[in-house]
Amino acid sequence: MKLVKTLITVSSISTSSGPSYGVYYNGKIYIVAQSANQLQVISNNSVIKTITLPSYPPAVPFKVTECNGDFYIVYQKGPEINSNGDVIKVFRLPNTGKFPEICSADGYVIVTASDGNKVYFIKNGIVHNVTVMPSPQGLAYDVATNVIYGISLKDFKIVYNFTLNESGMDTMTFVPPDEIAVATYDQQVFFLNATTGKVIAITTLPVGDAGINGYSQIVYIPYDGLVAISLAHNNDQVALINGSIVALVTVGNAPNGIVYDPQNHQLYVMDYASNEVSYFSPPPPQTTYSTTKIQSPSLLPYMTIIVVAIVIVVVGSLLIRGRKI
């Protein structure tokens, strides 16, 4: 079949400083504005609410997930944060480190200790942990089999391990029905069979000294079967991949988190160094693409800073916000 060329139009939403990661819930996008110490709510492509998060320097909010209507926020660096205001509870999780991952699955909130060798499972105020390989970062959840990161949620035991001859794994996502896409620091995305661990395809990103780093995030797009990964290091692009590179979409500076909205079929990209969220509609299947960037009149001017590396510390914090958001 001959591929049809399609234009990908990118628009932007001004946010508070340092948008890092986000989550979709109930028709809205919730993002962490890390530098502003805020949680912001986006609806109809506009920021409709800003919530100030507790500030206990040097702790900084990093990633957010939703579970049963509550919002769980994992912090980088800093001591335990005490309950305050709308905060429900704080969990002290050792060794979350520089690049912790957080997600929810089957009523659990799962957090990786990126500076250790644990994955934490939280439900009803109880914390389980499983010892895994050193420096776990990415999480991939298969809702059909109830398996995450090679761990069964039935008994918290490791089901299997996969090994890649790479310098390090950064982020991963599950690709139905039976694949895992894993991004590595060697600027490659591996597609693995989720049962056997066999490599199905390898995508190499031609981005030189810019591309995947610990702030990159990869997500699956059910609309067209592609995966999208943010090229966070010295870059302003999101790669759309299906085993090979389909498109490099130009967004804002230092793209970090990516959120897919299943209602409007748009991708939302947190552009950390631009103080904005870029959004665009992923193309339909069986197309090739060119891209353009639209500057909204309401946008703040681009900042010339780059993402500053965060010092690795021993203790991280997990904060729960109430569901009144």
Automatic annotation (TrEMBL):
InterPro entries: Haem_d1_sf, WD40/YVTN_repeat-like_dom_sf. This is YncE family protein. Keywords: Membrane, Transmembrane, Transmembrane helix. SUPFAM superfamilies: C-terminal (heme d1) domain of cytochrome cd1-nitrite reductase. It comes from Stygiolobus azoricus. The chain crosses the membrane at residues 299-320. Gene3D superfamilies: YVTN repeat-like/Quinoprotein amine dehydrogenase. The keyword Membrane applies.
